[in-house]
Design brief:
Elements: E1 4-6, E2 10-13, E3 22-24, H1 27-30, E4 33-35, E5 50-52, H2 58-61, E6 67-70, E7 75-79, H3 104-107, E8 111-116, E9 121-127, E10 133-135, E11 139-140, H4 150-178, E12 182-189, E13 202-210, H5 212-216, H6 220-228, H7 231-241, H8 244-255
C-alpha cells in the first residue's frame, strides 16, 4: 500500500499487499460508489504467492497450504505459490480452486485499516484501484442520506474482527519467541535425472518454523500451558501444514517441466 495523504485526513502510512491506491472511506468522496458483483472477484490476488494469516486460520489453512513464518517479526503466511508473484491456486478467471482455503486477508479486500499518523489512530480505507469499485455498484458504500450501507457496515465489522485476530496472532508469535521455539527451515525439491536417478536437491524456500525438538524439550508446565491456551493445536497445525510443500512442488511439475525457483515469503 503506497503512502498517501488525503486533505484533512493526516498521513496514511504502511505497505500492504494488494492495496495500490488507498483512500480513507468517506461519504464526501465515495457516496456514489459501490462494489459490482463479479464472477471472478479475486483477480487482484493473482500475484499473492504468500498471504498474511491469522492464528485462528491455521487449522483450515493446513489442509491446502504450508504455513510459514518470515522476517524478524516472524509474520505467519499461507504459501500459495513457489515463485514470487504467482498464486498457483488462483485460476485466470479470478476464482480459487475448489477446496483451497481463502485467507481472511484476501476476503476483506478492498477494505483495510491504516494508520493516521497525524491523529494517532486507525482509519478505514478502500483501495480505489480495485476493479470492482464503480459508480452505482450493486453494493453501494453509502445510503442516500450519507450513512454507511448495510454492506459497508458488515465490512467494517469484518475488518474489526480481523484486527482483533491480528492482535491475537501477534500475541501467539510473541509467545513462541519467548519460548525460543523458532528455527530456520528449508523446503527442497529433488528433480529426477534423465536416467531416473535422483538429481541434486534444489532450494525452494527458506523460512522460520517451530522446532519440534525444542517443543518436545519444553518443561511440562510450559507444554501444558500451550495446550490449555490453545496454542499447541495451532503449532501442530503449522507443523502438519509443511507437508503441503510436496503438493505445491507436484502441482508446479504437473503444470510445466521447469524447476521451481526459490521464493522466500
Amino acid at each position: 500500500m503506497a503512502t498517501e495523504t488525503q486533505p484533512g485526513m493526516g498521513q496514511i502510512s504502511g505497505n500492504v499487499l494488494f492495496y495500490s491506491k488507498p483512500e480513507p472511506l468517506s461519504a464526501d468522496l465515495h457516496k456514489g460508489l459501490g462494489v459490482k458483483r463479479m464472477d471472478g472477484p479475486f483477480k487482484f490476488a493473482k500475484e499473492g504467492h504468500a498471504i498474511p494469516l491469522t492464528v485462528t486460520e491455521f487449522g483450515v489453512t493446513a489442509l491446502s497450504s504450508p504455513i510459514i513464518f518470515v522476517g524478524e517479526d516472524k509474520i505467519p503466511l499461507a504459501v500459495m505459490g513457489l515463485n514470487a508473484g504467482e498464486n498457483m491456486f488462483l485460476a485466470k478467471e479470478g476464482l480459487f480452486e475448489a477446496g483451497v482455503y481463502v485467507p481472511a486477508y484476501i476476503r476483506r479486500y478492498p477494505f483495510v485499516f491504516a494508520n493516521d499518523a497525524a491523529a494517532g489512530q486507525m482509519i478505514l480505507c478502500i483501495d480505489r484501484a480495485a476493479e470492482f469499485i464503480v459508480e452505482g455498484g450493486d453494493m453501494p458504500f453509502f445510503e442516500a442520506d450519507g450513512k454507511p450501507s448495510e454492506y459497508t457496515q458488515n465490512c467494517i465489522n469484518f475488518c474489526n474482527e480481523y484486527e482483533g485476530e491480528r492482535q491475537r496472532t501477534q500475541s501467539f508469535v510473541d509467545l513462541l519467541k519467548e519460548l525460543d521455539l523458532f528455527e530456520s527451515k528449508r523446503a527442497n525439491f529433488t528433480p529426477a535425472n534423465p536416467d531416473g536417478t535422483a538429481g541434486e536437491p534444489q532450494l525452494v524456500a527458506e523460512y522460520f518454523g517451530v522446532s519440534e525438538e525444542k517443543l518436545n524439550a519444553l518443561p511440562i508446565e510450559k507444554y501444558t500451558e500451550l495446550r490449555d491456551n490453545g496454542a499447541l493445536a495451532q503449532i501442530y497445525a503449522h507443523l502438519v501444514s509443511l507437508a503441503g510443500w510436496d503438493r505445491l512442488i507436484a502441482l508446479a511439475m504437473f503444470r510445466g517441466p521447469q524447476t521451481p525457483q526459490a521464493a522466500n515469503g
